[in-house]
């Protein structure tokens, strides 16, 4: 059915197009001869097509969630010193541990218990309470001989060096710890001087008791340099050899990512109520800040307890549940670990429950050694310091924001079609006028008395 449009409506539409703020369509309508009208039609179509292409390209770029990475070298005279966790490289070092090892090996069932003696003894030690576990390794007074920071002597007390139990190394001690023993958060150590002469210095006694019957491969210590508030498990340790002075120069790098969908990280991971994941909340209940690595560890730890009813040291950093002692239990954990890896367990199950934090701090290390001239047997000296006042800041920025997208579309439309936001409003206004015209016409047919009034209004509108 052919739609009939009245002359008045055609006149209104034509007049609106001619008065439009855009360029192409008014020229087409106002052209007096056919060649000029064809000329303007061709260029308007070409401009409209190229405009549509560029606008579509900008929209696709926006939904690609692209980011730019800004790397800046900054300077600060007051830098937060990292937490330093120091352990003897040997789990068993004391006379008490020698007695414990002998008793454990005497009680060991050669047919059913874990075959490898050292692994069995470490698993056996995890069945003890914390007081007994502390007796297996070095005490604070034995392990740390001297300490100083920025040329100032540091007291060797539980207040300064907080105890930390490490599943692999046993008794460890943290300088500049995140919390006091009562759980309250401490103020971090601020360093105002850099260089070797102002280092955090510590002398360690790495010797072990002669009564230990299991073979010892090495003597020494291990140092974990981790962000204030993070767990020592979040970084790899630096081994320290006895008989040497080890110098560790630090450079701090902070990284800030933009949350999803621009990266894989999630915002507000420091808020324990932000996500409903039980794993996420349980990590927040620990002594350190949240980290996805720790959440992954707890995720697998609980899977071990679920499938094998126990856990194995080395496959988890947690001590929740029962330690495996039997060979078949250990094989269960090993088989479970490789099965889960093959089935992308961490991606499929743990990752949705363990959001990735967007902010992180890492310390790059430049390590040098020098041979000690005196008393080299069993003792090791360590110097840890910032090499200068600079640090690296890595920050992501959104390439195309919502405001940028709108601005780009407006610029493209203005360049190729000469339109603005008000040009689109003009189109809406034409529809409103047409609708209003037909509404009045419908009312006029129902109520003839309003005909004169409508004619007067239409005449006023044209004027």
From TrEMBL:
Query: What keywords were assigned to this record?
Result: Ion channel, Ion transport, Membrane, Sodium, Sodium channel, Sodium transport, Transmembrane, Transmembrane helix, Transport
The record's Gene Ontology cellular component field reads: plasma membrane
Q: Does the keyword Membrane apply?
A: yes
Its protein name is: Uncharacterized protein
- What's a Pfam family in this record? ASC
First and last residue of the signal peptide: none
Topology of this chain in the membrane: Multi-pass membrane protein
Q: Which family does it belong to?
A: Belongs to the amiloride-sensitive sodium channel (TC 1.A.6) family.
A Gene Ontology molecular function term for this protein is: ligand-gated sodium channel activity
Keyword Protein transport included in the entry's annotation: no
Query: In terms of domain of life, where is this protein from?
Result: Eukaryota
Report the subcellular localization. Answer: Membrane
Q: Where are the transmembrane segments?
A: 38-56, 415-439
Main subcellular location of this protein, as a coarse class: membrane
